[in-house]
Design goal:
Putative mRNA 3-end processing factor, MBL, Xnuc_lig_assoc, binds zinc ion, Metallo-beta-lactamase, Chain A, alpha/beta
């Protein structure tokens, strides 16, 4: 009998009587990371990595019952050995390993094998059964070296500042924003944070992280700010808030920026290809390295990618229909 199956509530482990990243209320929920399509409201109790705990309390309420665990720590849940391993996706993100009767299952959650300098780097976990996402599971996705992207970003900010423009970077509040802040050149100018970004940062500062930039205070005379960097979530686009930074130039940071026309459609001046996920080649690499014989493909290009895995890698591969978002991340 399969250790993990999909039912109407989420990914279910019958032997252990728990769910992973469920989308409907259940008693026990193991949570891979803090993005809203994986961490939902209404569970009896939550089990997640220590650094996801403050994010869960920020987003779902401080009264939630949460058990924090470390990477590598093994829990015995009704005879199933459960452990969390770094997924390299965002701070606190984990792959969930289940072991029962000499069989190992791995739920990759969202994962990224290229280190971002902020989240604990991805570790390959060998397994028999691997549940993988496929957000960028088409050969057209081929991400550039992040070091080049950061260099471009800093050069653009510097140029904007020298012309008296502010620079607005749109980056998801959890994940991309911390990634960007770790790599911007702090000597170019002041860095201001939208409230949504500052809230996430504050929650993570409580567990020992530190970030560049400061929350935009009510007293700040925005019309006098020049040459600054402002980090805001994509939802800030086309809001009156944005206009208060005039004159500004604006860019979107996302894996989707690799698509032709994406920048124009979003109505931004620049697009920086920066992702919390694997590109095509990295997804393939991860699958081969786990040595799994059975692959279950979730959110993204499930059909195309599972067919590819069957035909190219000669593995068993099926689609796991889940309710995780096939966008790169949430809107906030
Ligand atoms: Zn995610
Ligand atoms: Zn996801």
């Amino acid at each position: 009998m399969s250790l993990l199956t999909v039912n109407e509530n989420g990914l279910f482990c019958r032997q252990g009587d728990f769910y992973i990243d469920p989308w409907k209320p259940v008693k026990t929920a193991i949570i891979s990371h803090g993005h809203s399509d994986h961490m939902r409201f209404g569970m009896g109790n939550y089990i997640c990595h220590h650094h996801t705990v403050p994010l869960l309390k920020l987003r779902l309420g401080s009264e939630q019952i949460v058990q924090g665990v470390s990477y590598g720590e093994v829990l015995d849940i009704n005879g199933v050995q459960v452990s969390f391993h770094p997924a390299g996706h965002i701070i606190g993100s984990a792959q969930i390993r289940l072991s029962y009767n000499d069989e190992v299952w791995l739920f990759g959650g969202d994962y990224k094998i290229v280190p971002d300098g902020v989240s604990t780097p991805y570790v390959c976990v060998p397994c028999d059964h691997f549940i993988t996402e496929s957000t960028f599971g088409l050969p057209i996705y081929n991400f550039p070296d992040p070091a080049e992207v950061y260099a471009d970003m800093n050069a653009w900010w510097r140029a904007n500042a020298s012309e008296g423009y502010n620079t607005v970077l749109l980056a998801y509040a959890l994940g991309k924003a911390q990634n960007v802040l770790a790599h911007v050149d702090k000597t170019i100018g002041d860095i201001y944070l939208h409230g949504a970004v500052a809230n996430v940062n504050d929650a993570l500062i409580d567990v020992g992280y530190s970030f560049a930039g400061r929350r935009i205070s009510d007293g700040l005379r925005r019309h006098e700010v020049r040459g600054a960097l402002i980090v805001a979530p994509p939802s800030a686009l086309a809001t009156p808030w944005l206009r208060t930074w005039t004159p500004y130039r604006i860019a979107m940071c996302s894996g989707w920026m690799q698509l032709r026309g994406a920048r124009r459609r979003r109505g931004v001046d620049r697009g920086f290809v920066l992702s919390d996920h694997c590109d095509w080649q990295q997804l393939n690499q991860a699958i081969v390295q786990t040595k799994a014989r059975n692959i279950y493909v979730t959110h993204g290009y499930e059909q195309a990618f599972s067919r590819w895995v069957r035909e190219k890698h000669g593995l068993q591969a099926v689609v796991f229909k889940t309710l995780y978002s096939d966008q790169e991340e949430e809107e906030l």
